[in-house]
Write a structure and sequence with these properties.
Blueprint (H helix, E strand, L loop, with lengths): L6 H7 L1 E16 L6 H11 L7 H22 L3 E3 L8 H19 L3 E19 L10 E19 L3 E8 L6 E6 H11 L4 E3 L4 E4 L2 H9 L3 H12 L8 H5 L5 E15 L2 H18 L3 H6 L11 E8 L2 E8 L2 E8 L3 E8 L14 H21 L7 H7 L3 E3 L2 E3 L7 H13 L8 H12 L5 H13 L3 E3 L6 E3 L1 H22 L8 H21 L6
Parallel strand pairs: 2-3
Antiparallel strand pairs: 1-6, 1-9, 3-4, 4-5, 5-6, 7-8, 9-13, 10-11, 11-12, 12-13, 14-15, 16-17
Helix pairs in contact: 13-14, 13-16, 14-15
């Protein structure tokens, strides 16, 4: 029977290209001075110069915007595509299906600009109003408030010389929120072509490159200024509800991050190595199901019931994907094009990583997302080749005593030691570190009983004196040493993945071959004992 591949062997010997790049960028476009009701009143009275702020004023702006879109499309021969209401649940797929031929034709013809407009209805947070004065004949006084309503939207699909395909979406209702969609890989491809850098594509990515270091440098150079330049370039070319006068008065759109994808692509030197790697990866994750590691991967520990995280393996035919979820964000791992491992960290809310959403914070978000991808691979590497040598095993099985310091042994099988190892394996604090409090809750949960602060302090001292953890300078925070990582994973795997299944291997769901072999062994041992039995003494 062939042995299961070790993912470290594949990663260390068969990666032909390794590239990190921003993939999907989905941005909010919002008008900062039109976010609360009082600002709407000020917009109507001070900027528009009207005595009463009313929905009728805002409605006329929406009407002019819709008329301007129709003229814009007619004058330039731009197709206006509509998605029917019944297809709302398939909205994104329908848009792409309809627009893709227009984008591909414009790309072949090198015709840059708006290539199609998609018109539809979506739920958006927009302003409604109610009249606070109910008396007949009284001058109306409208109070504006936001509510989630189905309203008209326009998607302006653009072929840009720098970014390739993208879109700007604008809503027809106040405060006229928008969205911007771009793809970082497409931007990198165009910069590489401009520099004469040779590469081959792998779907939305790269399969090979003459100068990988230069390609990675281009990936790293994508900045908020490039994204802002795309928006500034086209927001003045398309119809908008707000014009130059509104912009001069401060009523214009700012950008913030809604969804950011940072991908790490490892292209293997042969498709079989890609498949071997992923099969080993899936096998290692599907049985362990260690969701706590995902809070570590995102460098933030779950602190409340709202801190949601989880792990699942998804299969569609022969395509397998591992999803790790944390709060509003997630990591995806899958095979790309049958020959590359793609790790994608998808940040749907920058606050999940403690980052503000404004576009200028994109570099910080990219750095943290890059660390997430790396931490995940580090955790998965730690789960492989974790066997410890006899010297280390014997050392931690003996009480520690040196220069007046004493500590108990960490014996395999001891309930408290196994809970401690399981907690360390779940958190994998080699990256973020842990405190008495943060680790104590995990150990108590695995023990299923009370576990005091004093007990945790004693166990931390045992771990430290045995060289499995070390305390950070001037902090009450500890990190696992390299030996500590191996011991934690080894103890946990030996118990959960080897001994426990073997002790229950005489009944389903254990494999039939193992059950038959155990019965044969049991019968042989029984016969041996029976034959060696002495007659009873008289």
């Amino acid at each position: 029977m062939a042995s299961v591949a070790n993912i470290n062997d594949v990663l260390d010997g068969h990666v032909a290209l390794e590239i990190e790049c921003v993939d999907r960028l989905y941005l909010n476009a919002y008008v900062p001075d039109l976010q609360v009701g009082g600002q709407v009143v000020r917009f109507c009275t001070r900027h528009l110069g009207k005595p009463i702020a009313s929905t009728a004023l805002l409605g006329r702006i929406g009407d002019r915007f819709r008329a301007a879109v129709r003229r814009f499309a007619t004058e330039r021969g731009i197709p206006v595509l509509k998605v029917k209401k019944r297809d709302h649940h398939r909205w994104d797929d329908r848009k792409l299906d309809q627009v893709r031929p227009h984008l591909e034709r414009a790309e072949r013809e090198e015709r840059y600009g708006v290539v199609a407009i998609v018109q539809g209805q979506e739920y958006q947070w927009v302003f409604s109003a109610r009249n606070r004065r109910k008396k007949p004949g009284a001058r109306p006084n409208f109070e504006f408030f936001k509510e989630d309503r189905r309203v008209g939207v326009y998607y302006f699909y653009i072929l840009d010389r720098e970014f390739g395909p993208g879109f700007i979406k604008l809503c027809t209702y106040c405060p006229w929120p928008g969205k911007v969609w771009l793809n970082g890989h497409e931007w990198v491809k165009r910069q590489a072509l401009r520099e004469g850098l040779g590469y081959t594509e792998l779907e939305n990515g790269f399969a090979s490159c003459d100068h990988p270091e230069r390609l990675q440098a281009i990936c790293n150079s994508l900045s908020p200024e490039h994204v802002q330049a795309f928006f500034d370039r086209w927001i003045t070319q398309i119809p908008t509800p707000l014009g130059p006068q509104a912009r001069a008065a401060g009523y214009w759109w700012d950008l913030s991050m809604r969804q950011t994808e940072l991908s790490l692509t490892l292209v293997f030197d042969a498709p079989r190595h890609a498949r071997t790697f992923f099969e080993a990866l899936v096998q290692d994750n599907i049985g362990i199901g260690r969701p706590e590691e995902i809070s570590l991967a995102f460098a933030r520990k779950a602190r409340s019931k709202g801190d949601r995280y989880g792990t699942r393996v998804v299969s569609h035919g022969t395509d397998v994907r591992i999803d790790f979820r944390y709060k509003n964000s997630r990591i995806k791992q899958y095979l790309k094009g049958g020959r590359a491992l793609r790790v994608e960290t998808v940040i749907n809310k920058p606050a999940d990583l403690g980052i503000a959403a404004r576009l200028h914070n994109l570099p910080e978000l990219i750095d943290k997302a890059r660390a997430v991808n790396r931490r995940l691979l580090m955790i998965e590497r730690a789960g492989q080749s974790c066997a410890i040598g006899s010297a280390l095993f014997e050392r931690i099985h003996q009480p520690f005593q040196d220069e007046g310091h004493r500590a108990g042994a960490l014996r395999f099988g001891d309930l408290r030691v196994m809970a401690l190892a399981g907690a360390l394996c779940c958190v994998l604090p080699a990256v973020t570190g842990f405190t008495n409090k943060s680790l104590r809750g995990l150990v108590a949960g695995l023990l299923g009983q009370d576990y005091s602060q004093n007990q945790m302090s004693y166990d931390l001292r045992r771990l430290r004196l045995h060289g499995l953890i070390q305390r950070l300078p001037r902090k009450n925070t500890y990190v696992l040493t390299s030996e500590g990582i191996r011991v934690a994973v080894f103890y946990t795997k030996l118990q959960d993945r080897l001994l426990r299944p073997l002790l229950e291997a005489d009944k389903p769901p254990a494999k039939l071959e193992i059950r038959r072999a155990l019965r044969t062994l049991e019968n042989a041992v029984s016969d041996y004992v029976q034959n060696a039995r002495l007659a009873a003494a008289r």
